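Hey team,

Filing this mostly as a record. A colleague (T.K.) asked me to run one chain through the structure pipeline before their review meeting, and I want the input and output archived in the tracker in case anyone asks later how it was produced. No errors, nothing strange. Just documentation.

Input sequence:
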Amino acid sequence: MSKGIVLLAAGGTGGHVFPAEALAYKLKERGYSVHLVTDSRAERYAGKFPADEIHVVPSATIGSKNPVAVARSLWTLWSGMRAAKKLIARLKPAVVVGFGGYPTVPPLLAATRLGVPAMIHEQNAVMGRANKALASRVQAIAGGFLPEGGGQFPDRTVTTGNPVRPAIIAAANVPYSPSNPGEPFNLVVFGGSQGAQYFSKAMPTAISLLDDELRDRLRITQQVRPEDMEMMSVCVTQLKMAADTAPFFTDMAERLAAAHLVICRSGASTVSEISVIGRPAVLVPYPHALDHDQAANAAALAATGGAKVIPQAELSPEKIASILTHVMNDPEKLARMAAAAKQAGKPDAANLLADMVEAIAARRTIAEFKGKRA
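Output structure:
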């Protein structure tokens, strides 16, 4: 028999849906019925998200200054909140949990107006606009990188970390093994579509600047956009690089586990996965990220000594070559960075988040939850 219904609300992108998915599995294991409310974009996740039912509620973002567009968005939000109220009245969830993105606004507003316990999870070190709008209304705020006891709502904030995929948890069991001079050096390079484009241009030039001895040691895994694959293939051939290049790797967790160094963007999930596995990284925040959240995420890991952060504007091919030359000749430094990254990782984030959800569903305060943890 189900312990009750938990209604998860998430924007229709992977960054919002994947942490909700990890929590959903934990809640199902604990005997809860899980429903997901989102927008039409998330329908592609319907096949694998472990929800008893997926509900689509109208929503919109107010990003335009055009009065007509603003009025249309407000009407859509109002319609979405009416639909969410009807859904919540029918389902009678024990708690509603939001994971960010504008589709979370109608169900979370509806829950708070109906007196249903509600909480939000924020992946990034900087709170997104939807969560910021909801933070004052909910009973609890879980954070991937938000400082516990800090921010605008310190009494309601708990740093849970970001739930990560089972493959990442498995990869975390692989210890870091330094590459000594003369031994193969595994370099993993990846980013989102924009990040992949930048690295595709910068990395071949950087590698061409290395001494032959270092270049011969390199074993590269690099994510490359489909439109850049031909260019990268030519570069790999000309430089005689030992490289695997692809738009997507299904075994990225295993490749990260084997990495001696990672060069990548600093989205919340990426930083969380690197730290759980415990691998040294050069983080290059996407310069056009909304609210500069990637820079804040990167700074959180760099503060532990687990990563070096370099703005894209400062990361020339010459700089990359200099970094590689230095670290490939200093395995002890990379081992220290790997240990620091692992120390910062939160592999139990999904369990802790599930504990928090159960506490809010039982109408316990965050002070009571923190006291029980202590």
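Quick notes for T.K.: The mean pLDDT is 89. The chain has two domains: 5-163+347-372, 168-344.
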